[in-house]
Amino acid sequence: MGSKLKISSIPGVQYTTIDPIVNPKGNILHALKKSDDTFSEFGEAYFTSVYKAEVKGWKKHKLMIMNLFVPVGKATFFLHDEFLGITESYEIGEKNYGRLTVPAGVWVAFRGELEKNLILNIASIEHDPNESEDKDISSLSLEESS
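^ that's the sequence the OP posted. Answer follows.
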């Protein structure tokens, strides 16, 4: 299985493409192994969905490291580093499958691109409602900057 790393301008952000294992009865999509460079620790795994053209965010975790996957559909993730003033986007889905690792301290939003979009987060810690901050989606631009 081959993988490629996309270099980010935001410290700690990594996007790794993951080649599916093709099977005539249905493909196998790996997510995260403890031997992967981006694995830190396991807290919980959960799925969320987002409808076409809908945006969820902005959210910034204080402690959680997120490992994001889109095994069904397609979503565009927007990451913003407020200290560097950088916004980047990553389109991930069934046809462009990979792992987006987002460290604590980076703002995240995502938009559904197809009718059905399912996102998996393998998080380094369990959910704690006091561990993250939220901002109104209009408070930051969804356009890339440098």
